[in-house]
Amino acid sequence: xxxxxxxxxxxxxxxxxxxxxxxxxxxxxxxxxxxxxxxxxxxxxxxxxxxxxxxxxxxxxxxxxxxxxxxxxxxxxxxxxxxxxxxxxxxxxxxxxxxxxxxxxxxxxxxxxxxxxxxxxxxxxxxxxxxxxxxxxxxxxxxxxxxxxxxxxxxxxxxxx
Length: 161
Prior knowledge:
Layout: E1 13-19, E2 22-28, H1 30-38, H2 42-54, H3 73-79, H4 87-90, H5 92-103, H6 118-138, H7 142-160
Antiparallel strand pairs: 1-2
């Protein structure tokens, strides 16, 4: 069992950080971990600031606030963390270029939890297909749009029964 990097207690949190292509593993106990996570890393702030500036998101947009959790866009920029899932909707036009820059995509392409209900996975699939349909229509790819429309109808009928 690993020991905490700051004290001699057993480590309960194991963090892998990558800075300038250098991997650093950090092992912390619960108390030290909470202190570590609450202390902002200035290098992360600098990186986040550079990415936000590159995406064209200046100071004038900092005052937007989430009505759900109360976090401001300025706080997100400072911490690098959102306050709740609703923030993705509130800060959408500012986050989209940032996510595209960082991840080269704006949708999750990973796995679903095994315990996730089948209905939520189908709902996710419907949302994704509707977005693909919208994109196909914008590109005037009507053949693909018709296929997507038919598949969406088929899935909606399956959910209704």
